Amino acid sequence: MKHLIIDPLIILLLFSFGVGCEKNEESMETSAFEAKFFTKRNFDAEIGTCTEDPYLGYNYQVGEGSSTLLGKFTAELFFCGNGSDYKNGEGVFVAENGDELYYRVPSSGEIGHVLPLPYADPLYELYFQDSFTFTGGTGRFKGASGGGKTDSYVDLLVDGDTTQFIPEHRTDHVWSGTITLMK
């Protein structure tokens, strides 16, 4: 009779250990990230303002591109700048299915530098190679982290003529790094 009472208790105890051992942590996976896209300055929307001297120039840009991770996407970016430096950049890549991937450029606490090209180019006058950081997102990008470096080139002037500024100038980007997502 003792044997019959102990066996159900052992089974109950083993079952409760098995339930308690379920994995509650989300598993994460890191992979390479590369996005090729362009942005153009857009004066149609005033999303924010810049109040920190000398970074008073508000710049809002929109564009589109493609990435192995996102597929085709649209891009939005805004930052505060003073012509040669910029900071507090935030943006979003929106995949075709609506999932959003948020980023900061340059990374928090950093100042980005827009520099003249060190060589003559028929299209671009300026470039920047600064860090970016993923700050989460929606859908499959919820909890996204990681980052990398920008490789971005600015077409600011009509045929390189310093008297003919393009207000809605174009910037071509190739951003590469790593991204960590929940599995």
UniProtKB/TrEMBL annotation:
It comes from the Bacteria. This is Uncharacterized protein. It comes from Cerina litoralis.
